[in-house]
Structure formats: C-alpha cells, structure tokens
TrEMBL record:
One of its GO terms (cellular component) is protein-DNA complex. This is DNA-binding transcriptional LysR family regulator. Residues 3-60 form the HTH lysR-type domain. Pfam families: HTH_1 (PF00126), LysR_substrate (PF03466). One of its GO terms (molecular function) is DNA-binding transcription factor activity. The lineage of its organism: Bacteria, Pseudomonadati, Pseudomonadota, Betaproteobacteria, Burkholderiales. PANTHER family: HCA OPERON TRANSCRIPTIONAL ACTIVATOR HCAR, TRANSCRIPTIONAL DUAL REGULATOR HCAR-RELATED. PROSITE patterns: HTH_LYSR. It comes from Pseudoduganella flava. The keyword Transport does not apply.
Amino acid sequence: MNIELRQLRYFVTVAEELHFGRAAKRLHMTQPPLSQTILALEDMLGATLFDRNRRGVALTSAGEALLPEARRLLAQAGELPGIVKRAATGATGKLTLAFVSSADYSVLPPSLRAYRAAYPQVRITLLEATSDLQLEELLHGRVDAGLLIPPLPDKARAELDYLPVLTEPLILASPANLPELRGKHQASLAALAPLPLIIFPRAISPGLYDAILAVFRTAGITPVIGQEAIQMQTIVSLVSAGMGIALVPQSVSNLRRPGVEYRPLAHTTPLVETGLAWRRDNPSPVLKGFLDLMRKRL
C-alpha cells in the first residue's frame, strides 16, 4: 500500500472544509477528481473516512483518527527541502575535531565558540590526541579535522591539506620560588641547567621536541631529560610537583597550577606552530563550513 502525499493533502482539505465543492475550489480543481481520489484512499485504507448525506459531509471515527497523522506527515514532508538544504550547506550534520592539548589553551575555545554561534545545529565531537595519533585518525577518515603541531610527514602531506592557525614562542614553566629565578622577569637556561627537563617524547611531537632542544643548543646547554609525558597537563603537573622544568608554548600559561611559575626566556626561541589538518578528499559540507570560518578568523 503506497499512500501519496497528494491523497493526504486532498483528505485534509476536505476534512477542514467538510464540503467537497469548497475543498475542490481551494485545491484549484474540479469536484469529480477530488471525490474519486478520496474514494480511492478509502478503498486503499479499507475504511470510510467521510459520512456523506444530503445535510453535508462529516468525518467518521476513522477519518478523525487519520486527520492528525495526515497533518503530521504533510508537515514533515514540507520540512524535507529545508532539511536537505541545511545538510547540503553544512548547517546541520556532525563535525569530529581532534586537538592537541596545547590548543585547549589557545585556539580551540574561541574557534568552537565562533563555530557554535554560526552553526548551532551541527553536532561537534571532540577528541584530544597527540599529533601522531591525529595523523592516523585523519588518514583513516575517522576525524574530519585536527588541530596539531607540524611538521606533517611525506605520507600525510600526500593526502592532507594544512592551514597554519597560530605561532607562538616557547616560555619556561618552572617550580615556584626557585632561588635561581627570584626577582627575575626573564629566565636564563644557564642558571637552570642542572634541573631535569620534562618534555614530550619526540615520536609523538617531533616539531615541538626539536624546537625545545634548539633553544638549549642556542644557549650552549645539553639538557638532562628527567621525564617524558604526552599531555601538556601532565607536564605542567610534574613541574608543579618539583620534578623539573619545561619549555611550553606561551598559551599554556593559561593553564594554572599551584606551584608553577611561567616566565619568558632570555634566549631567542623558535616559534611553535599549531595548524589545522584535514583530508583533501573529504567532501563534507560541515567540514567546509568549519574551514571557511577558520580562514576568516586568521
């Protein structure tokens, strides 16, 4: 049994007018084909929808039961073009976004606020992951985009596009009240050389790891690596516990921990970049909307 929307529309019009002539006029048609359509609908449903007599037309109990459902179906059908258009333009759907922990203290919150304001009906799924894991997720199509720290390996560059979104210097995160830093606005690594360095493993973030060691090389110091940790929060917590010092992107100073002090370095530091990567062949309109917004914010 295939009921057509046209049949339901005719039925609702007759039910609202309770007069076949007025209903036909409202539908811009003649009465005989309207009556035939209602008879065919009744035959299809196996029930009489209208009592017809000389005094007029009235809904039967079956007709009264059908009327709200017919209106609901017609309303839903009327919404379909808008639903399809919103999906095609990226106004609805789902965005899966991965991010490195340092982005949580810099570009991620304002970007999400702006995107949520522009596309309130898009469902956002967030995944905190290191840059190496993000590349795997992107290459396998499990996330739409990732905020990560470059460089991208050759294999990834062949399939991914990349947009720089933030560059910032490295700063020192140190245990509070170190005698070597007392009264000093800037930190000299020479005074801190004996302290262990807490750092990311190179395998998960070679760009950040190499930038940190470059600062020590420029200062003529070989650091003693005391601990490795894969999350920025863990690194700062280890500093708070007095386990050593760390060089972190400047935005991480927004992460406050008791017992941690942040200072600019007296040495020239390379800029650490955070960027957005995505699959070049991802056709998602939702992703396109997110990328357009990010480009406008730069």
